């Protein structure tokens, strides 16, 4: 699959850790002549750190930035990566659709993608794209960190990362190819995934693990030995709870947006945990060894 031609502009909506990392990776790999960050809180900081070339507080504030580029003689065939919270997608998509009607012949949108961790909200918000629907395909890079904000952005975040690509009914084939090529240029490995399968899969492989990490850290935080656990922990606790340092607000929204699939995965896990609990209660070493061996062998199969 070919690496895309250099974009005139890459617009990143949301310049927290993930959005700023997209911007940093795009600049490192030279996939856009100009990178513009849009965020009411963090875009100015992202520009001061050199992660973006220009910034705006909102999509509605973007035209003056584009006009300045036009005054400098730049065309702006742009791509848009939406890295805002999924609950904001309907508003973001509507604003993009409205913005595109104001473009001069020097400005066009080549494609739009998002990096949301859940897709039910994407499907719900997609009609707000209107005439831009064919230019949109959904993405989910399987990369991230417990870090927050542009100061921790990593240009290498997507290197060798799996990127799930989910088309919507209106997605054009050319759009899918361009978005896949974009992620390849950033070092990612695109993999197609039907959007209707996304949230069930992610509930099991991402959202439930975050629940467990938050739950374990929360239980220890309220325990008498909380301070000792922080001071004297080993690698096991550190590794198991690392993702519990993530944004509480972000993950509360993810859990709620994927509530049904997460509850289903939670029920399956709880049943398995109860089997282990009963084996331990009965001092049933044979059953415990069998359960642990099965888990260990499955984990060793990770690639």
CATH fold category name of the largest domain: Rossmann fold
What's the CATH class of the largest domain, please?
Alpha Beta
* Main sheet: strands, sense, barrel: 5 strands, parallel
Number of domains: 2
Overall pLDDT, averaged? 92
Explain what this protein looks like in three dimensions:
The chain contains twelve helices and eight strands. The protein has 303 residues and is α/β, with parallel strands linked by helices. The chain has two domains: 7-193, 3-Layer(aba) Sandwich (Rossmann fold), CATH 3.40.50.720; 199-300, 6-phosphogluconate dehydrogenase C-terminal fold. The strands form two sheets. Strands 3-2-1-4-5 form a five-stranded parallel beta sheet, with helices on both faces. Strands 6-7-8 form a three-stranded mixed beta sheet, covered by helices on one side. β7 (162-166), α6 and β8 form a beta-alpha-beta unit. The protein starts with 6 loop residues before the first strand and ends with a helix.
Brief write-up:
With 303 residues, this protein is α/β, with parallel strands linked by helices. The protein has helices spanning 17-29, 43-48, 62-71, 89-100, 120-125, 173-185, 195-221, 226-232, 235-241, 248-257, 259-281, 285-300, and strands at residues 7-13, 32-38, 54-56, 76-82, 107-114, 138-141, 162-166, 189-192. The protein is built from twelve helices and eight strands.
Features:
5-stranded parallel β-sheet, 3-stranded mixed β-sheet, 12 helices, 6-phosphogluconate dehydrogenase C-terminal fold, single chain, 50% helix, 303 residues, alpha/beta, elongated, 8 strands, Rossmann fold
């Amino acid at each position: 699959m070919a690496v895309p031609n250099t974009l005139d502009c890459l617009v990143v909506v949301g310049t927290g850790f993930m959005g700023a990392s997209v911007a940093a990776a795009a600049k490192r790999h030279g996939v856009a002549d100009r990178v513009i960050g849009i965020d009411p809180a963090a875009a100015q900081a992202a520009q001061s750190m050199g992660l973006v070339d220009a910034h705006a507080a909102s999509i509605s504030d973007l035209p003056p930035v584009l006009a300045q580029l036009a005054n400098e003689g730049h065309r702006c065939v742009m791509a848009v990566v939406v890295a805002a919270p999924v609950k904001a997608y309907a508003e973001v998509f509507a604003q993009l659709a409205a913005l595109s009607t104001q473009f001069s012949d020097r400005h066009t949108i080549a494609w739009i993608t998002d990096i949301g961790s859940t897709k039910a909200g994407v499907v719900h918000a997609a009609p707000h794209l209107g005439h831009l629907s064919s230019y949109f395909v959904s993405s989910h890079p399987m990369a991230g960190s417990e870090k927050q904000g542009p100061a921790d952005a990593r240009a290498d975040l997507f290197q060798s990362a799996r990127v799930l690509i989910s088309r919507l009914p209106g997605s054009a084939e050319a759009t899918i190819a361009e978005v896949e090529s974009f992620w390849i240029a950033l070092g990612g490995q695109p993999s197609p995934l039907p959007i209707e399968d996304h949230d069930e899969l992610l509930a099991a492989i991402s959202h439930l693990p975050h629940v467990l990490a938050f739950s374990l850290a929360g239980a220890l935080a309220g325990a008498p030995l909380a301070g000792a656990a922080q001071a004297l922990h080993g690698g096991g606790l550190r590794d198991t709870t690392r993702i519990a340092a993530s944004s509480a607000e972000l993950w509360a929204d993810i859990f709620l947006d994927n509530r049904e699939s997460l509850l289903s995965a939670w029920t399956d896990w709880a049943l398995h945990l109860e089997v282990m609990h009963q084996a331990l209660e009965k001092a049933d070493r044979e059953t415990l060894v069998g359960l642990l061996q099965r888990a260990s062998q499955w984990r060793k199969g990770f690639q």
